[in-house]
Recover the amino acids of this structure.
């Protein structure tokens, strides 16, 4: 045996042995699955086949029709008795694309050639001479390099006679007339591989006409071991097979199969594998029956398992995976039994999320984030409703709860020059020593703090002069030094408080934006004025931030404003400018000058120099699309944190990149004179939309 063959055989053995040791049970925290099920328009909950076509559409083969997904909506293609150009049957078993917008659809009653541009289908079934019960059940299909289209049926192997437009049986040693053929593959050498249910694997040389029948797989000749549902040929030329007894790898150099365990956990057993798909780097995705989805680094043997979690809506939607497809943009599309389809962005979670924080020993956990603060040392402090104060060390990924007896809800956090934290709780305002973790209530001669009227659940700010500001529901108080009397400003409905680089304190409330006086005097208010485009877009101000150029960004219940403090004029950013939601709850500005906003529909990112707005939501890894007002912070590293009623999302802006694969544009419908028209009637042979001259 040559040295290269010995080396390849050694890598094969080592990688498969390593899988058992390296397999980890779950990677749920690192990836987020988008669920596309019946509630979003999938025609039936079991998706047996998935394919993304060259136009970018994703097709789901269900048990009640074929669905086309354009990223927003689904369109169903079904059998219609009175329409000979509709699909031949509604149970879809296999999908394959050919040039020209042609989709070959395997159903329970034959093979269909669907022209995706017109929606018209041609059905092919076995001739009367070949017809036996169930042999029009097309589970697998392949057009080989000679141009022959093969089909695997419940009753043997067949091919399409395109001259007669009929399917015909193809007798082959090892494949009897009652043998289901569920897998077809042509390898780099041109050899054809046919996988059966219970009868093993057949390799066929279409040039020499010779066959080889494999009935003992990795020392096992049981019916399950001889069932081959799926295959993938990796970059090294090795063939991986999904069988009824797990994953096996065949190496032509050593002419042997090696069983590759996916996990060392005996509780998971040896799964039946329905689907395999891999990429050019050697990454392999494995869909199982009742055992979830696995991701395998084939060259190192490292595997991760994904399974459905009832407590995590971003987990895999179901544990039986029948279909897999790798999209050009890096997404993995997953067809599930009883749970529709899922989409996984393989970039992982660019946004990290925490969904619950532990409360006191007897109380429940709480996901409701009421306050955030990043201190000078890089620690992020998280205040919750009902679960107290938490200390988060981002580099270590560690979260620790701080016991605050009688003050389990922390509504605001600020830090003074001495490094002490000030906490606004349901029991009043406290100063907290970060080192000793001891705390004491704030007192003032002219107010019975911590229960000062009008300052319940106050928002806090310590300004550059080390003065403590407390913003309540009906008034704002300032304490210039510990123990000093409070200076009171009567402002109703305050939402947020902010200090700019010049030391000016700004307050946002239901009735406008307020510029607070430095020492004494009345606040100056800026509001929305009907008919004045330079006034604020809305008087209900929810958030305020400042960028490096000195622009004051003001978030309202109806849009974002770039406020010029020299002219006191505002420039509006609203739906017409690209926002998807106008309720701006919190604002942060990154090092590059981009403005990040939490809304009631996710997070928006504005690049002021270009006016471009990008949108992020739960599909990108956010814990939710809903966030709490004023609950956002940027730490010393530039990482950002946004809190909501269902948890906390964090990310570094530098890690959030645009998709490098530009999405394709496709016309899915149009209106003529404001009336919807059937698109296929106006498409030419090249798929272009052509209208009569009178309609132009």
């Amino acid at each position: 045996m040559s040295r290269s063959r010995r080396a390849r055989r050694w890598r094969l053995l080592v990688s498969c042995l390593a899988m058992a040791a390296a397999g980890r049970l779950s990677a749920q925290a690192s990836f987020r699955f988008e669920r596309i099920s019946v509630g979003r328009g999938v025609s039936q909950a079991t998706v047996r086949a998935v394919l993304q076509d060259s136009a970018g559409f994703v097709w789901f083969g269900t048990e009640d029709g074929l669905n086309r997904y354009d990223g927003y909506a689904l369109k169903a293609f079904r059998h219609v008795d009175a329409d000979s150009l509709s699909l031949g049957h509604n149970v879809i078993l296999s999908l394959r694309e050919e040039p020209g917008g042609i989709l070959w659809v395997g159903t329970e009653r034959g093979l269909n050639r669907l022209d995706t541009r017109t929606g018209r289908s041609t059905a092919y079934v076995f001739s009367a001479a070949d017809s036996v019960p169930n042999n029009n059940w097309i589970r697998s299909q392949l057009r080989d390099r000679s141009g022959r289209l093969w089909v695997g049926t419940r009753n043997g192997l067949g091919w399409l006679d395109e001259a007669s437009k009929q399917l015909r049986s193809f007798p082959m040693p090892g494949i009897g007339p009652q043998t289901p053929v569920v897998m077809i593959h042509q390898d780099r050498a041109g050899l054809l591989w046919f996988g059966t249910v219970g009868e093993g694997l057949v390799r066929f040389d279409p040039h020499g006409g010779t066959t080889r029948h494999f009935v003992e797989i990795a020392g096992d000749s049981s019916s399950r071991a001889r069932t081959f549902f799926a295959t993938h040929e990796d970059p090294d030329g090795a063939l991986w097979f999904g069988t009824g007894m797990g994953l096996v790898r065949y190496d032509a150099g050593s002419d042997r199969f090696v069983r590759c365990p996916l996990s060392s956990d005996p509780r998971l057993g040896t799964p039946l594998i329905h689907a395999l798909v891999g990429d050019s780097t050697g990454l392999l995705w494995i869909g199982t029956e009742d055992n979830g989805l696995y991701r395998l680094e084939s060259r190192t043997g490292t595997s991760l398992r994904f399974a459905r979690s009832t407590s995590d809506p971003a987990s895999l939607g179901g544990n039986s995976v029948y279909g897999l497809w790798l999209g050009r943009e890096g997404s993995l599309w997953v067809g599930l039994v009883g749970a529709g389809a899922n989409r996984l962005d393989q970039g992982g979670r660019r946004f990290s999320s925490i969904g619950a924080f532990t409360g006191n020993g007897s109380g429940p956990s709480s996901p409701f984030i009421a306050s955030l603060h990043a201190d000078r040392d890089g620690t992020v402090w998280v205040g919750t409703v009902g679960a107290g104060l938490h200390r988060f060390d981002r580099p270590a990924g560690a979260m620790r709860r701080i016991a605050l007896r009688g003050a389990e809800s922390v509504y605001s956090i600020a830090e003074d020059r001495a490094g002490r934290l000030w906490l606004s709780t349901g029991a009043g305002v406290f100063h907290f020593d970060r080192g000793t973790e001891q705390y004491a209530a704030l007192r003032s001669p002219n107010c019975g703090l911590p229960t000062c009227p009008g300052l319940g659940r106050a928002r806090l700010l310590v300004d550059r002069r080390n003065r403590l500001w407390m913003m309540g529901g009906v008034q704002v108080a300032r304490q210039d030094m510990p123990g000093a009397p409070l200076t009171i400003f009567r402002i109703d409905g305050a939402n947020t408080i902010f200090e700019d680089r010049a030391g000016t304190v700004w307050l946002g409330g239901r009735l406008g934006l307020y510029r607070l006086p430095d020492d004494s005097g009345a606040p100056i208010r800026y509001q929305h004025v009907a008919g004045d485009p330079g006034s604020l877009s809305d008087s209900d101000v929810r958030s305020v931030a400042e960028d490096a150029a000195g622009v004051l960004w003001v978030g309202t219940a109806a849009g974002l404003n770039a406020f010029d403090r020299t002219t006191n004029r505002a420039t509006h950013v609203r739906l017409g400018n690209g926002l998807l939601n106008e309720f701006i709850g919190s604002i942060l500005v990154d090092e590059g000058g981009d403005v990040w906003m939490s809304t009631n529909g996710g997070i928006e990112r504005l690049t002021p120099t270009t006016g471009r707005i990008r949108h992020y939501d739960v599909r990108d890894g956010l814990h939710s699309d809903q966030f709490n007002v004023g609950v956002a912070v940027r730490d010393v590293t530039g990482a950002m944190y946004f809190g909501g009623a269902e948890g906390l999302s964090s990310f570094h802006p530098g890690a959030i990149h645009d998709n490098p694969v530009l999405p394709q544009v496709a016309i899915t419908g149009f209106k003529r004179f404001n009336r919807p028209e059937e698109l296929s009637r106006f498409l030419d042979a090249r798929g272009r939309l052509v209208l009569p001259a009178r309609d132009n």
About this structure: The mean pLDDT is 87. The two ends are 72 Å apart (CA to CA). The chain is about 5% helix and 40% strand. The helical segments are 3-22.
